[in-house]
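Render NAD-dependent epimerase/dehydratase domain-containing protein in 3D.
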Amino acid sequence: MASTRRFHSQSPTAPTTRHLSTPPLRKEITDTYNHIYSLSITGLRFFTVYGPWGRPDMAYFSFTRNILQGKLITVYCGKNRADLARDFTYIDDIIKGFVASLDTATKSSDSDGRKCGPALYHIFNLGNTSPVIVPTLVRFLEKHLKVKAKINEVKMPGNGDVPFTHANNYARTELGYNPATNLEAGLKKFVKWCISYYGYDPDPPPPDKDTLLHFFFFGSNFRFSKITLDSFFKRD
């Protein structure tokens, strides 16, 4: 069970978005199976995962795309113009936490469904445990992209996202989970991958006959990526 990235250790009693309404429902279902069928449960909640091969709809990814294209990026602010903060977690740290969570519960029932041991129940928040405000995210992207962002600041709507996320230390205590990648270092790795993978070049040379012109869809515009056949088939 993996949660949305917008959830804390405590479920809200009156969620304001569909993202916040599903975690309590999942917990009720897993509680039921744990209690009635003696099924050991280990749940994972991921906090704002980012990095290579990430989701293009995530803010860090879309910000990178728009900054490179010279487009506006929309940065939301909270009540009284407070900056939103997220517990950004690099993908490598998430994988380490995922692996550490394996086999955290002993066998609780046999092949016939008979109880043979305690049915343990764990929910681990996998985050960086160091929330960072969104303007800082933008500043790091500007630094590594070497391009100034064009920012459109917008007030967060009432049914928008939560203003702040922060994973607790339960995973650190129980699993020895210790995220090692801070946001600046993680974004540096992401930017390097993104430019390499998509072949972005602000001033590309004219193509020659031995070059494959590879079109890829990057946001709302088609862009040219000049790459050789060898690099096209060998890229990571």
